[in-house]
Design goal:
Strand order of the largest sheet of chain B: 6-7-8-3-9-10
Strand content of chain B: 25-35%
Largest sheet of chain B: 6 strands, mixed
Number of domains of chain B: 1
Largest interface: A-B, 24 and 26 residues
Number of helices of chain B: 7
Radius of gyration of chain B: 17 Å
CATH architecture of chain B: 3-Layer(aba) Sandwich
Radius of gyration of chain A: 32 Å
Shape of chain A: elongated
Structural class of chain A: alpha+beta
Oligomer: heterodimer
Low-confidence stretches of chain B: none
Distance between the termini of chain B: 17 Å
Chain lengths: 474, 227
């Protein structure tokens, strides 16, 4: 207890120097906690975004992932419901499932008879409500993008797809422009019925007059209830005469990249199946498995593989990190940056405390010699000096934790938004400090360890100084 | 001197220092016995080896030759931990510059050696207050050294040196930083405390007033005791 009192009072001895040291520790600890919180948010955000697009595991007919994209006749699955039932009934996989759904991915030609335009498109058939659930998967309770006021024009209005609207779909704003389904295109000489314009969501390219389109879309739905239609043409995978279906364009949605924006059409999976496999039961290209916890991915994938092998199923699968190695790459990159920042801040703390301790010890050398003369042994003296460093780290670390928490709350209050890579909507920047206390623990423990390490060397030197030499210091 | 009365037995003690490439010999085969309860002065001019001798007797330094036995213990054989414990239990120190711990109050400074010796808190408190009363500072127990005069600080140092009831107190120029009146009072106090406690005092000084109160005066010159 005497040692603790001595250490604490010695910290208070040179208040200015101790304050600067504590401030340096606090800023380093707080900064590390905030950066750790940001990295944690980025990891989780990318995970949610990626899983929201691809699910945790995708199941295909064997060979589809490598070379089946252009040969749906060979690689489409006609037994989606059986696969889904098998997964749901499996005692290991079933309880871990959040959702099993399917997609069909294909290419074709889209034509607008009204505007006399046509182009190729990239089709994505989904179950509308399942697609919504997949997209809204948010196990980490990150702030949902659709709840941001700035995204209201994007996510407001009718949904892209609806379970009951089998022939309705959405397309990229770029594709809408190519097909002259928006106002800017109407400036051309093409004949156009404005009442037939679909809903358009922002943010979109500069060429689109969004306020006008929104107004027009509202007028259309409220007063006339009509919508533009296009014809989708696709060659059946097994050959024969091209098939045509009509798609009612419910909404123009901006897509993250120009390629997708100019090409993507999202539609009900049954409508897509009817286009590709007319008169046949539902065909899908991919079964998507969404789990309750990402941590179960590997175990479920292993169980799935055993099922495929045991039942001799002609299926293969990929996990979300195999489909999108980008996640692991960004995780590694941010991990390296975090370690780099940690080392930088640790060095700052170590040198600041080392400097403070060193100066304090040199000033008090005679006093330390007196303590040794009174009977404090080397270990006892080392302990007293280490305790001083420990308390500097402890006080600074606690202040740093409070700074980190304050930074988290301040950022929430400020509602900073940005457009994450790979998406077309705004997201709120968050730092997961309070929701991921591990970053606080790492920052706090790191500060404390740095304080102890930086105190150890000056303390050792003081403890090893001969008593008579220490007493001679003035 | 009967063996039972001998507290300190220094035999043929040498102490050499290395200063760059030169070797300085501070003590040259010094032999000295100090009896229990003695009030001994080591006198001599500056550089004669007084402080060196005190450092060796106080187990703060090791001789380069010879042996020193204190209370029957050959101190050169003790390691750092044992030597520290020996100092805490058996020795007391009074320094020229008082050497109080500035962040501790007068009470805490006096109590500190008792805490080192793991004396129970209530007993330590009682003994500390008794000692502060003995040196006339019971009213200044809560004062920190910075709030005390030079004489008061040296009184605290005397109380600190004696609170553990040591066998031997070593005082290095205890009056050098005090005016003559205060210095005289400090010498009186040390003498009175020595009489009261029976603790042996070894005082290094060239203050004639201190030497006049001593039982024995040993004069040092160039690292040797004069006959």
């Amino acid at each position: 207890m005497q040692d603790v009192i001595l250490a604490l009072r010695n910290i208070g001895r040179n208040r200015r120097r101790s304050l600067v040291t504590i401030l340096a520790v606090a800023l380093s600890c707080g900064g590390l906690a905030l950066f750790g919180g940001y990295v944690s948010w980025a990891f989780r955000g990318v995970e949610e975004q990626t899983v929201g697009l691809y699910g945790h595991i995708q199941i295909y007919k064997k060979g589809y992932y490598a070379n089946g994209g252009g040969d749906l006749a060979s690689y489409a699955l006609s037994n989606y419901e059986e696969i889904k039932t098998m997964l749901e009934r499996d005692p290991f996989i079933g309880p871990r499932l959040e959702l099993v759904t399917a997609q069909i991915i294909f290419n074709g030609m889209v034509t607008s008879a009204r505007t006399h335009t046509s182009t190729t498109f990239f089709g994505l058939g989904v179950f509308p409500s399942d697609d919504e659930r997949l997209w809204q998967w948010n196990p980490y309770a990150l702030f949902p993008a659709k709840d941001l006021a700035i995204n209201a024009s994007l996510f407001g209005g009718p949904p892209e797809l609806a379970d009951g609207d089998l022939v309705g779909g959405s397309m990229g704003t770029g594709l809408g422009r190519i097909l002259h389904l928006d106002r800017s295109s109407a400036k051309t000489d093409r004949p156009r019925d404005s009442s037939a314009s679909p809903e358009v969501s922002s943010p979109a390219s500069a060429e689109v007059d969004l306020p006008f389109l929104m107004e027009q879309a509202e007028t259309t739905s409220e007063e006339e209830g009509g919508r533009a239609t296009v014809e989708l043409v696709s060659m059946p995978p097994d050959g024969g005469v091209p098939n045509v279906v009509t798609l009612g364009v419910r909404k123009l949605m901006p897509r993250a990249t120009k390629e997708f924006d100019d090409q993507l059409i999202k539609l009900h999976i049954r409508h897509a199946s009817a286009l590709l496999f007319p008169g046949q039961p539902l065909h899908v290209s991919t079964v998507i498995v969404l789990l309750k916890k990402t941590a179960d991915t590997t175990a479920v994938a292993q169980r799935l593989q055993r099922l495929f092998d045991e039942k001799n199923l002609d299926l293969e699968m990929k996990t979300w990190t195999e489909i999108r190695p980008f996640y692991n790459q960004i995780r590694r990159m941010l991990g390296i940056i975090f370690v780099f920042v940690f080392i930088l801040l640790a060095m700052l703390v170590v040198f600041t405390i080392y400097n403070t301790q060193n100066a304090g010890i040199i000033e008090r050398m005679s006093e330390l010699g007196t303590l040794r003369a009174l009977g404090v042994n080397r270990w006892g003296l080392w302990k007293i000096l280490i305790l001083e460093g420990f308390f500097l780290g402890l006080i600074g670390g606690i202040a740093g934790v409070l700074l980190g928490v304050a930074g988290d709350l301040a950022l929430r209050a400020m509602e900073v938004v940005y457009t994450p890579p790979g998406v077309s909507f705004f997201a709120r920047v968050e730092v997961l400090v309070l929701r991921n206390p591990a970053v606080l623990i790492v920052a706090f423990t790191g500060s404390l360890l740095c304080a102890l390490i930086s105190s150890a060397f000056p303390a050792r030197r003081a403890a090893l100084t001969p008593i008579v030499e220490a007493l001679r210091h003035t | 001197m009967p063996t039972a009365e001998i507290l300190v037995e220094a035999t043929n003690v040498f102490k050499e220092y290395r200063l760059d490439k030169a070797i300085i010999t501070a003590l040259r085969g010094l032999s000295l016995n100090i009896r229990r309860g003695g009030f001994v002065v080591i006198a001599g001019p500056s550089g004669s080896g007084k402080s060196t001798l005190l450092n060796l007797l106080g187990c703060l330094d090791h001789p380069t030759g010879g042996s020193i036995r204190i209370a029957g213990q050959e101190v050169a054989q003790l390691g750092d931990a044992a030597l520290s414990a020996f100092r805490a239990r058996r020795l007391g120190f009074i320094f020229q510059s008082f050497n109080l711990v500035p962040v501790l109050s007068a009470f805490e400074n006096v109590e500190y050696p008792l805490r080192l010796n793991r004396v129970p808190r209530p007993e330590a408190k009682e003994r500390t207050m008794t000692m502060l009363e003995a040196v006339g500072l019971e009213g200044h127990a809560r004062h920190r050294p910075g709030e005390l005069s030079g004489g008061q600080r040296q009184r605290v140092a005397i109380a600190r040196a004696l609170v553990t009831h040591p066998d031997l107190v070593l005082a290095d120029e205890p009056t050098a930083n005090l005016d003559s009146i205060t210095g005289g009072r400090i010498v009186d106090l040390m003498h009175a405390m020595q009489q009261r406690s029976g603790t042996a005092f070894v005082i290094a000084t060239h203050d004639e007033m201190v030497a006049a109160r001593a039982h024995d005066v040993h004069k040092l010159h160039d690292g040797r005791l004069e006959d």
